[in-house]
Amino acid sequence: MNSTELLVDFFRGVARQGPGGDAETKRALELAGLDRSRPLRIADLGCGTGSSALVLASELDATLTAVDIFPPFLEDLRARARDCGVEDRITTVAGSMDSLPFQDSEFDVIWSEGAIYNVGFANGIRSWSRFLKPGGVLVVSEITWLGSRRPQELQSYWEWEYPEIDTTSSKMRVLEQHGYTPCAYFVLPDRCWLDNYYHPLKETFGSFLERHGDSDQARAIVEAQEREMGLYEKYGAYYGYAVYVARKAL
Ligand code: SAH
Question: Which residues form the domain of 191?
Answer without folding.
Answer: 3-248
